[in-house]
Structure formats: structure tokens, C-alpha cells
Amino acid sequence: LTAAGLTTAAALSRRPAVTGAELRSAVPLPPPFRLPLPLPRVLRPVSPGRYEITQRVADIEILPGIPTPMWTYDGTFPGPTIESRRGRPITVTHRNELPVPTVVHLHGGRTPAGSDGYPTDLVLPAGWTADHHTMPDPRAVRTRLTRGYTFPLDQRPALLWYHDHRMDFTAPALWRGLAGLHIVRDDAEEALGLPSGARELPLLIADRAFAADGSLDYPSLDGTLRDRPGVRESFRGGVLGDVILVNGVPWPVHEVDAARYRLRVLNASNARHYELEAVTDDQRRLPLVQVGADQGLLAAPVTHATLPIGPAERYDVVVDFADVPVGGRVRLLNRLGTGRTAEVLAFRVARRARDDSRVPAVLSADLPSWDRPVRVRDFSFRTGRTAGGHGWLVDGRPFDPARTDVTVSFGDVEVWRLVADVHHPVHLHLAGFRVLSRGGRPPLPHDAGLKDTVSLRPGEAAEIITRFDGYRGRYLFHCHNAEHEDMGMMANLDIT
Ligand code: C2O
Ligand code: CU
């Protein structure tokens, strides 16, 4: 990309956007808890450790009988799930057949910088050269370009996810479908006896809104999306939809045994925060027994009545349906929603069944914790004025790929104090961290374990601690409200 190309792209998408208004779908929506919950297909390697994914437009039937054109990984939404083993490297080759450049990032991956999906390391579609931002001239089409990403996966087993990360255009790409799961496993975790097989359910939760023709509604200026002046300004909190999808289906239902289930929950929404609770027909709350965080198992289980989850966060939770009567229903609800956005998913208990699973009192002994930081740094995540207008800023500056914002020394332990003006889920690439404090107090119960995204509430400050090791190079930290990110709330971190 030329500097001019970047500037144009930035100027387009950094116009004032934005207060938490929600897009209204213009199509009839299905009743809740009727459509079955699908599980994303697990991707087969083309040879051991080698995967291929084609990014392409596909019509996806999200709403019954209505095709929705989406940008997909391999023709499905969510994209196919990659299942890998700790310490066994894989390569994933992405081919871009979409009408726009893309970037792939493995969120939560301990990945060398060259494969981390830096926002200007593009996978170009046919007909694009690196210096223009217009639709390709069909006569210029020569080759379709691919890019190989290498993931060492030398990291704790965890639910990761891959998604688009192109500079200034991550939010519309994510909204249009570029997201998939990646599960890292290892023997130690499998030996614990947590619910597994059909009783382990990956749940990718994301909100969307639909235009009258069934397409996804998005108030964006991206050249291939419809311009919606006037709507944009009402989305200061990011873009919210009125339909809650789980694994790509609106408000699905899943038949379960009266037994323990392991729910591996990802909030893949652009901007929506949820507070989940599991409620029975007689209005009882089932305990949510958290066994893992963004970066894998906790040291010991933590039981929650409700669980807040910000964009990009993951929670690994065991729910026991044993004392729900057969035929009964447990609804996973969102306490932060109103009307239909307060509903997420239902489980229908179909039968009594044997349960050999367990939730051990000790889950993992390799959880890193650090002390003796060599440095404490402060970072603010605030909106404000910039030369170019309104900005979503880290320490008063919008993202600039040409500027180094922080340099850390390889191997150093640091404490970062993060402060937010409104809700900002802050994500750090490469390095998992522990939350040390929140609002000057001890962390909240759901801050347990090793995280890569911490959801700061309005006006809140949090301290995190980490060690910068693994790889050297340029990495990112940013707000994972995808609209805030695109508006510039992102910074460069060089590990040297
Ligand atoms: Cu999930 Cu920098 O991203
Ligand atoms: Cu934000």
C-alpha cells in the first residue's frame, strides 16, 4: 500500500461515526429457540499440518428461506474450525477471492510477527495492486493471490479465533462474516475429564441486522457496502444489530442430555457486550462454572451467576443440566439486552443420561503469574479531537502504521495501566496477561486466569501484567470494539 492509499482509506472510515443505537432489521425474523444450533465444520488439513482456506462471497441462509450474501472463509459462517495440538506448528494458506483486500489474524495466537496479520500485510484479490483502493478493473485481473500464515502454537490449549484485521476495514469485514474458531488442545487438558465430544459446544455469538433484501445491513463507507449517511452518527458505541446469532443461526435451540456440558463461548460481535445467565423454565439460574479464560484453563474453577463478555473475549464454562426435568428448557439470556437481544440460545433437555465427566478442583498448574515488573506504563483509550476530526485514540493518537508507540525489551515483565472513557475491550496481541486490579480494587471474579482481552467499563482503569516473550517484532494492542479499532483506537508495540 502507498501512504496515499492508506490515507484515503483512513479518511473514508474515520469520519465521525457513532451512540449505541441499534440497527433494525427490515425482514421478518424467526421466532426464538426453533432453529437447531449448528456446529461449525472442522477443517481437514490438505496434508499433515497444512490447511487451505479460500475467502469468497457466498450466499448463506441465516434467516430461513432468505439468502444473505456474505464474505466467508471457505463458504460458511462461521468459517471452518481449525483444531490443533499444542506445540505442533501448522500453516494456513489463505486465497482471497473476495472483492477487497483482507488480512488474517489468529486472535490469541502466540504467532511470529510475520504471520500475525499486521493490518497492512494484505492478501490481495485478483486485479488489485498494492496502491489503489478502488474496485478492480476486470481487464486487469491476472492472478489471485494467496498468503501463507505459520502458527507455531507453542501455547496453552485455548479457544482462539481467526478474523479479518485489515486496517480501517476490520469492522465491515467481520460483520460480513470473516470469523472462525481455532481450538488448541493438549493431553493434559484432555486428561482432566471435562465434558467432551458431543458435550463440548463451541458457541460463537454475534449480533447482526438485515436489510430488506436479506443482505447484512452495515452503515459503512467501504466502497462495496452501501453508504448510509445519517445512520453512522448514531453508532458511537459501535455497530449493533437486533438479531443474535449463535454459530450463524438466530436464537437457536440445542437438544442436550441431562448432564454436564462444556460451553466454549466467544463474543465475536463487533461492538455488543453481553451478560450471560442460564435460566430454567421455573426461573432458576444454573451456575456457570468457569474453567477457562481467553488463554486457557484457570488454576481452579470459578462459579458465576452471570458472566459479562465483551467483544473478542472467550469463556470456557461448564453447565450441568442434571436436575432439569426431561422436556424442560434452559435459556441462555443476555441481561444487557432489551427485547429480543436479551435472548441468545436455548437448551432443551431431551433425555436422562450417564455422565462420567468431572470438573476437577485443580485445573492447571502452568498458569503464568509474574511479579517484579521492570516498568509500569499508562495508556488511555479515549475518544477526542484530532487534526482530521473526531478520533478513537490510544494516548491521544489515532493508529498510524508508520509510528512506533511503545518499545519493550524481549523478556521484560511490565505492568500496563489502561484507562477508558467509555466501554473499551482492550486486546493485546502475542502476550497473554493477568488482570491485577480493576478500578483500584482487586480484579473481578471473571478476570481470573490468563486473558488477552480485558473489557474496561466506562471510566474504569485496570492494571494488567505480562511478560513480552515468544517473538520479537511489531505487534498491536487496540480496542476490540471493531468500529473503534477501525476509527484508529490501535497502537504499535515493538518487541526488540
Ligand atoms: Cu481479535 Cu487485533 O484482534
Ligand atoms: Cu473501544
Describe this structure as you would to a colleague.
It catalyses: 4 Cu(+) + O2 + 4 H(+) = 4 Cu(2+) + 2 H2O. InterPro entries: Cu-oxidase-like_N (IPR011707), Cu-oxidase_C (IPR011706), Cu-oxidase_fam (IPR045087), Cu_oxidase_Cu_BS (IPR002355), Cupredoxin (IPR008972), TAT_signal (IPR006311). The structure is a single chain. The chain has 496 residues and is mainly beta. The chain folds into three domains: 172 residues, Cupredoxins -  blue copper proteins (Immunoglobulin-like, Sandwich); 156 residues, Sandwich (Immunoglobulin-like); 121 residues, Cupredoxins -  blue copper proteins (Immunoglobulin-like), CATH 2.60.40. Helices cover 5% and strands 41% of the residues. The chain contains four helices and 31 strands. The strands form six sheets. It has a seven-stranded mixed sheet, with no helix packed on it. Strands 12, 14, 15, 18, 20 and 21 form a six-stranded mixed sheet that branches. The protein has a five-stranded mixed sheet with strand order 23-22-25-29-27, with no helix packed on it. A hairpin with a 4-residue loop joins strand 14 and strand 15. The longest helix is centred in the first third of the chain and has 11 residues. It is globular, with a radius of gyration of 21 Å. Bound molecules: CU-O-CU linkage (C2O) and copper (II) ion (CU). The site of CU-O-CU linkage has 10 residues, from strand 5 and strand 30.
